[in-house]
Amino acid sequence: MIEPLLLLTIAASVYALAAKDLLYGVIALSASSVFCAWLFYILHAPDVAITEAAVGAGVSTLIYVWVIKKTERRDSQ
Amino acid sequence: MSRPDRNGFIAVISIIIIGAVLAPLLISEFAWPEKARNILSAEGNRETGAENLVSAIYLGYRAYDTVGETIVLLVALAGSIALITKAASAAEAGGQAVRPRDRATPTTLSSAAPNSAAPRARRSHTEIIDTVASKLAPIVLLFGLYVMAFGHQSPGGGFQGGVVLASGIVFIALGRREGGFGAIDPRRKFFAVSTLTAAEAVCFALLLGLVFVGAFGEGFTANPLPADGVVPPVAYIIAMNAAIGFKVASGVALLCVFMLGDMAK
Q1: CB of B221 within 8 Å of any CB in chain A?
Q2: Interface pTM (ipTM) of the complex?
Q3: Contact (Cβ atoms closer than 8 angstroms) between residue A65 and residue A54
Q4: Inter-residue long-range contacts of B20-25, CB under 8 Å, 24+ positions, other chains counted
Q5: In angstroms, what CA-CA distances link A74 with A23, B54, B264?
Q6: Is there a contact between B35 and B212 (Cβ–Cβ < 8 Å)?
Q7: pLDDT tens-digit profile of B43-60?
Q8: Is the pTM of this model over 0.80?
Q9: Does B251 contact A at CB distance below 8 Å?
């Protein structure tokens, strides 16, 4: 169960880095946080899992979306 | 060297550095430290009253550090909110100078602008967000309260519960039909910006008060409740969890509500 979650986390993180549309990148980052939270739960750290889910997938996504709204949605490269 | 080449080169270098940092941990024969762990699992519950050993550490043994962490969080939130409100007021002051020029260039749009501005502001506020956010909010708030209030027994605690509560408040801000995103209806006082500010201040004062109450016993942040008293010692941990939880909830929710209100403009 751990290996598929690790692979999903890495896949979501790589997509978040590679995405040209930054909004998609933020959503992928949020997904990778959710996979991480799941991993923490499996590894018997439910405290960290709750924090990761609430901060990583919730509040930080909102902050990134706000920043994208304030700046540019597309990567300039 | 072209740009993709250079990025690949930097990636390889980063992986080598990370490997060099982690290798000693992976190949080390040195035994994991067990003494502190054994002391905690044997004495943690008895000494602090908290069944959840994470709570026993951060509110029992290391409460001073927790208070420092709370102060850091308060300063960070205050700074962010100051920046957001300053940027918003600067944009309002500068926007009046810029806006006529923007509207003057497309001549066909300038006549339709007053009509199209209002629906465009509301379009980002769909039925899905209204319904889901307002139905989900009470459940999220209840879960946040549970995580916060039972942090001494089950996984969770003030910080975790506080952030979950904050996301519940953000759901409420999203689900309010009138006033749009986060620009909370002025007729409703509950969860308004002024209420959240007051809650943050009161809870921080309460937390500092709890810290100083310990000075009547052994010292600052020490649990003042005797082990055999009428009130069990765990009540001190519950009270600190609640103060931290409501403080974090109001602070983070305040930041998010400011950002949502800024997005709606």
Answers
A1: no
A2: 0.83
A3: no
A4: none
A5: 8, 42, 20
A6: no
A7: 888 877 788 888 888 888
A8: no
A9: no
